[in-house]
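Look at a sample.

——
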Amino acid sequence: MIRIEYQTQRLSLRFFMLMLVLFFFQVGFGLLLAAQHIDPTLLAGHLNFNVVRAEHTNLGILWVLSGFIGAILFVGPLLSRRELAAPVLIKFLFYALLAIVIWNVATQALAQQGIAGWWHGEPMLQEGLEYLEAGRIVDVVILIGFAILCYVVLRTFPPLSRWTEIHWGLGIGVVALTFVWTFGMFFVERLDLQEYFRWYVVHYWVEGVWEVIHISLVGFLLVLMFRADIKSVGYAVFWGVALVWLSGLIGNAHHYFWIGTPEFWQFWGSLFSALEPLPLIFCFWHVYLDAHQDGKPVGNMPAFAFLLGSVVLEQVGAGILGFTMTFALTNVWSHGTWVTLSHAHLALFGTFGMLGLAAAYYAVPLMRGVESFDQRPGKLAFWLVFAGMLGLGFAFAIGGTVQVFVYRTLGLDWFGGDVAPAMQFAKVMVPIFGLVFAIGVCLLVYDLLTLGLRAPARGDEERAPVALRGWGRRLIGWEAGLWLLAMWVFGAIITLGLLSFNLHSVREGNMRFPYLMASVGYSGLLLTTLFFVARFLRSLEARGRAGAGEPLVPGETAPAAAT
């Protein structure tokens, strides 16, 4: 197992630990939201639904950012072959992030009282814009924090002449992370213009800047896990980053459809939003190739499981479900409904959250000096959070389909009690799958917080060998392609279901077609995703436990044990 080569890598540990704590509390707020959906009077006047939702959303962004920073600080010295620059600034960055967290949580109480702290025409204490609730004071602190991260990364990296594609991806990512934030640092009274600037931050972060950082980190983690060729990984990173920026910049227009902006954005936003899944497919395919390049066992299955989950849910949540709902003809129905929640949860947690957890499972054992550890809790935690999140995605999607039909198509009264009973089945499913997810979160938080601190347990290496057959056989390219094709077929069915709300018969009250398409599409997509990841991980795990003479495929010999 690789040992820590540079002492400043240990500075990333505090960010990973903060990530876990924030993740734990974010899930707690999510469970409270699920309960308030069933009983809207729960904690009313003390913790109102809109405040709990803001806390849940903000903590989600903050723990993802904390995981990103931890991963960047961990891989930075390995990429640069030297210690991180300015470790004092990194320590300051951690405490600044901690202060931002406390500020975000505390000022939601002000928002509930309608206090924004206006001064010189700027909301200094609480801004109130979705995803950007923090006031102007903390906006400046956030800008300083991003500038510190940018400075540390660029000062640590070697001269430009020695940069690889991964250096360029992370370098561009941290610079853009800082620059894009400036669009969220001023208040505009016109709603449409304010929405432009708000979506500059939200969309360009998530589908532009964060995607660039995500692809770069995925690439380098594959280099570390599989001793992959950095040049071939760099080639994939280059095309992934190029396609992200090509599609994402104009694809931002799908947020402009319904806020009074020019009509031409409907065409361009729809077109380039449809192109956004391309880099995600490229990202997955190089994960597949690197994972199967030499047939060696995987030394750290929890880390790879979360990495694979990140890339696959990026396909499903950001790619397929993003594709189904961002055309103007589907978005007119889905925007702002639970259909959006299905996409958002699978995309944000799946793509970026799971990457931070993968990096933590790779880095924490190394920083704690653990030669080998019991991987079973980590693998169980993965399956609980993965299955729980897929279940949440299904519940939100089905509830959103009902919501679109009853509320937006039939025009029944939301506050009069027509919509809530129709969505009750989905509202009950949310806390059920939420509990499964929360159990997994508790397990992985405990596992990572105590790794290297508790007594070692028997690891997977003592389990009996297995034969590489059935789902344990090697996953070859055409089969992986068929799994992905099946996902996109179900995505097309979902799209047809959303498009059908434009039909006259549906608008007259016939719900059979959209309900059928949603039931088949969402259940098929999410079950295919679950089985595909099980197949992928089973093929890798089985070869690590294969008998000494067990061939990988006919005609091959078993590889030597990994070092």
Q: What stands out?
A: The two ends are 7 Å apart (CA to CA).
